[in-house]
Each structure stands twice: as structure tokens, then as C-alpha cells.
Amino acid sequence: MDALDLLEQQHRDVASLIDRVAVATSPGERTALVAEVVRAIEAHSRVEERCFYPAFRARIGDGGRLYEVFEHHALLRFAAVNLLRTRATDLRFEARLDMVRELALRHASAEEDWAFPKAKRNLCDEELDQIGVSVARAHEVLMEAAPRRGAWDRSPRREAAAREAGSRRLGEVAAPEDRSSLPRLERVDASARPAPGRRAHRETARPTPRASARRVSRPPS
To answer: Would residue 182 count as lying in a domain?
Structure first.
């Protein structure tokens, strides 16, 4: 199960979904297909970032180029979600669909012309097969955990929570993060904390009325 073959197949799947959106005539069908596009792009870009590129960087390096790849991933995901939030009858739908198609094509071309040949030259077949197993399992988990149609219209906080749930499920797939070097946080007993000092209330001295310099003469009794 070669990782490069799997990732190239995912590129073709995304392109095929985008073409199906372009030829669909029903607004409801278009919206449903765009939701599939969003799920496919989300899952594909995440497995590359978590399974393929860490091994690529460890063996080959080229960290500066990888940051550029990750920025392209983020831009592609944003464009796909923005398309999903656009009504199929909106005049901007076609332009945004063309933008997603162009970004997906640029993404696939950059990887298949640069990253994948470089990985083929520097990683042995066993390593690529091992990465491929992780890619396949992670992609399956993310496709199941990705929000379905209409779920991307939720608030950003709920979207982040949904992606976090998918990330937790990837614990069995991706390598666990080494936290041995991180500082350990200790729980602090709230009762042991010093009570915050109360700010002293400054009383403003009221001015005492001054005795009048002129003595008021009293009428004779």
C-alpha cells in the first residue's frame, strides 16, 4: 500500500467530485456534492500534514517549502468551506467553484511534480508502505469524523470542536507526541492561595464650612 499511490488517488477523487459539481443541475445536488468535496479536501490535507510530511521532513528536510505547502492546504480548505456556504443559486457560486478547482489542481501538481518524486528517491518501498498504512487509516477516520452537509454552517467554535474530536480519534494512527520534555503543571489548591487584598477605600474628606469673616448682627431684643 504505497503512500504516494494513495495520495495521488485522493487527488483524483477530489478532482472528480469537483467535476461532478460543475455538471450537476439541481441546487440540492450541487450542495450535497460540495459537502463531499469539503470532506475529501479536509481529510486529504490533514493526513498529508500528519502522516506523510512528518516522515518527509525527517528524511529530506526542506522545511521552508513545507510551510508553503501547509499554507496552500489552509487556503484550499478555506475556499472549499466558503463554496459550501454559498447558495448554489448565488451568482458567485461558479466563480468560487472555479477557485476551488484551480487551488486543488495547483496543490496536486505541486506535490506530484516536486514532493512525491523526491520522496520516491529518498524513501524505500518499505517506508512508503508503512506510511501508506497510516495514511489509509487516518483518511478513513477523518472521513467518518468530518462534518456532514450543513454542519459547516455552525459557529467556528463548534467546527473546531468537531475537528478536535477527529484529532482525538487519530491517536491510534499518528505517532503520539513526546511530552517528556514539557514542563509539568501541578494542581494548586484553591484554599492555599492567599486571599486577594481588599483595596482600602479612600474616604474623601469633606471640607468643613468656614466661619464667615463678617459677623452677622442680631436685631436688638
So the answer is: no
